[in-house]
Design goal:
436 residues, alpha/beta, TIM Barrel, eight-stranded parallel beta barrel, 13 helices, 16% strand, globular, polysaccharide degradation, Beta-glucosidase, cellulose degradation, Glyco_hydro_1_beta-glucosidase
C-alpha cells in the first residue's frame, strides 16, 4: 500500500486521472426518460438479487451539482459518465447533459461521455441490424448538442459483457438465453461503434475510443484440452471484440458466424481510434469443458460450453467474488502490445475497481494501490497508457446484483441519499496531489 515511505512511482506528465459512472446505475429520475431494456428486465420477478430497481438509484439527475463538487474535491482531471439513450430521446433529456457538462467544465473536470452503457431503449433490439444505424443517429444528435465542450468520446461500453450476460446467458437485460446464437448482437454493436465513430468525426470530435472489458486467460493446467479451452475463451471474450476495431478482421472461424456483408462491415468497424479503452477487473482461469454447471464471479454458466471457468487459486476475492490479481493487469497490457503492435492506439484504463463494504475501506485502497503499481510496470515496459479511471465515484445500482455490492469511493445511503466519502476517496485524493 502507498504510504509516505512507499509512495506510488510518478506517472508521466499529462497522464489523465478520472473516475467513471454509468447513467442507469446512478441517475434515477426514471419518470423523466423513456424505458430501457433494463427497466423491463427489472420488472420481471427474481431478476434482481435484492428485488430493487434503479428508479431512484443515486438520484444523480437532481443531485449532479453535489456529485460534481465531489469530483472537484477529489482532484480528478476527468469524469467518465454515460448518456442514457432513453433519456436523450425524451423531451428535455439532453438538457440534463447540457447542465452536467457545463457544471463539469466550470469545475475544471473534463467530460468524457460514453454513448451506450447497456440501457438500450426498450423498443430496440441489438439482434436487428437497424439498431446500429439508430445508434449512429443517437451519436450524431448528442454530439451536436454537447460537442462544443466535449472533445473526448467513448462509443460503447463492454459489448462483450452485454452480449454474453444479456443475450447469451440471460442474467442481464434483455434476458435472452441464445448462447452462441447471440453472436449477431456482438457484430451489430461493433458495427454501431464504427458508424458512431464516423458520426462523431463528422461532428468535429478529436478524441474517440471504445471501452472494452479485457483480462488475461490462463489455462487451468498444461494439458492440451485445458490450453485449447483457454484459447477459445480468449478468442470469444477478448479477440472477438478487440480484433475487429484494431485489425479490421475477426479471429479465424468467428467472421463466418456473423450476419450480413461482414467484409464491408469490418471496414466500418475498423475506423481509426484515438485511444483504446480497457476495463480491467480480473483474469480468468479456464479449463476443458465440464458436464456440470459452472460459476464465474457469481454468474451462472450452463453445462455444455466448450470451456469451464475455474477458480483462480491463491488469491483473495472481492465482495463480488472476483480474484484480486494486480499482476494480471501488467500481463494483459504487455500482451496487448505484443499482439497488436503498431495497430494499437494509446490505451486508457477506462474502468478498474472493486466491491467492498464499509467506510474504512482499506481493502479497496490496497486493491487500487496494487493495480496502479501494476499499471506503472506496464508503462515502464513500454506500453503507451495515457489515463486511468476508477470504477466508481459512487456506490450505485450494480445491475442484477441490485444494491448488494458497493464499488464507490463515496458511500451512498440509498434511503437519505447522503453522500459520505470513504477512506479510499481520501487516499485517491492524496495520491493525485502527490502525482502533481
Amino acid at each position: 500500500m502507498a504510504t509516505e515511505a512507499n509512495p506510488l512511482p510518478p506517472f508521466p506528465a499529462g497522464f489523465l486521472w478520472g473516475v467513471s459512472t454509468s447513467a442507469h446505475q446512478i441517475e434515477g429520475a426514471v419518470e423523466t426518460r423513456g424505458r430501457s431494456v433494463w427497466d423491463a428486465f427489472t420488472d420481471r420477478p427474481g431478476r434482481i438479487r435484492d428485488g430493487s430497481t434503479a428508479a431512484v438509484a443515486c438520484d444523480h439527475v437532481r443531485r449532479y451539482r453535489e456529485d460534481v463538487a465531489l469530483l472537484a474535491g477529489l482532484g480528478v482531471d476527468a469524469y467518465r459518465f454515460s448518456v442514457s439513450w432513453p433519456r436523450a430521446d425524451s423531451p428535455g433529456g439532453l438538457g440534463f447533459y447540457d447542465r452536467l457538462v457545463d457544471e463539469l467544465c466550470a469545475a475544471g473536470v473534463r467530460p468524457v461521455p460514453t454513448l451506450f452503457h447497456w440501457d438500450l431503449p426498450v423498443e430496440l433490439d441489438w439482434r436487428e441490424r437497424d439498431t446500429a444505424s439508430r445508434f449512429a443517429a443517437h451519436a450524431e444528435r448528442v454530439a451536436a448538442r454537447l460537442g462544443d465542450r466535449v472533445p473526448t468520446w467513448i462509443t460503447l461500453n463492454e459489448p462483450a459483457e452485454h452480449t454474453l450476460l444479456g443475450h447469451a446467458l440471460g442474467v442481464h437485460a434483455p434476458g435472452e438465453r441464445l448462447l452462441f446464437d447471440a453472436l449477431p448482437v456482438a457484430h451489430h454493436q461493433l458495427l454501431a461503434h464504427g458508424l458512431a465513430v464516423r458520426a462523431l468525426r463528422a461532428a468535429g470530435a478529436t478524441e474517440i475510443g471504445i471501452a472494452n472489458s479485457h483480462g488475461p486467460v490462463r489455462p487451468a493446467s498444461d494439458a492440451l484440452a485445458d490450453r485449447e479451452a483457454a484459447d477459445f475463451y480468449d478468442v470469444l471474450l477478448n479477440r472477438t471484440f478487440a480484433d475487429p476495431p484494431l485489425l479490421g478482421r475477426y479471429p479465424e472461424g468467428i467472421g463466418e458466424l456473423m450476419p450480413g456483408n461482414v467484409a464491408a462491415d469490418l471496414d466500418v468497424i475498423a475506423e481509426p481510434l484515438d485511444f483504446y479503452g480497457v476495463n480491467f477487473y480480473a483474469p480468468a482461469r479456464v479449463g476443458a469443458p465440464s458436464d456440470a454447471p459452472g460459476d464465474f464471479g457469481g454468474v451462472p454458466l450452463p453445462a455444455g460450453l466448450p470451456f469451464s471457468v475455474r477458480e483462480t487459486e491463491g488469491r483473495p476475492v472481492t465482495d463480488s467474488g472476483w480474484p484480486v490479481d494486480p499482476e494480471a493487469l501488467t500481463e494483459l497490457l504487455t500482451g496487448f502490445r505484443a499482439r497488436y503492435g503498431d495497430r494499437l492506439p494509446p490505451i486508457v484504463i477506462t474502468e478498474n475497481g472493486c466491491a467492498y463494504d464499509g467506510l474504512d475501506d482499506q481493502d479497496r485502497i490496497t486493491y487500487l494501490d496494487g493495480h496502479l503499481r501494476a499499471l506503472h510496470e506496464a508503462l515502464t515496459a513500454g506500453v503507451d497508457v495515457r489515463g486511468y479511471f476508477v470504477w466508481s465515484l459512487l456506490d450505485n445500482f450494480e445491475w442484477a446484483e441490485g444494491y448488494a455490492h458497493r464499488f464507490g469511493l463515496v458511500h451512498v445511503d440509498f434511503t437519505t441519499q447522503r453522500r459520505t466519502p470513504k477512506a479510499s476517496y481520501a487516499w485517491f485524493r492524496e495520491m493525485l496531489a502527490a502525482q502533481r
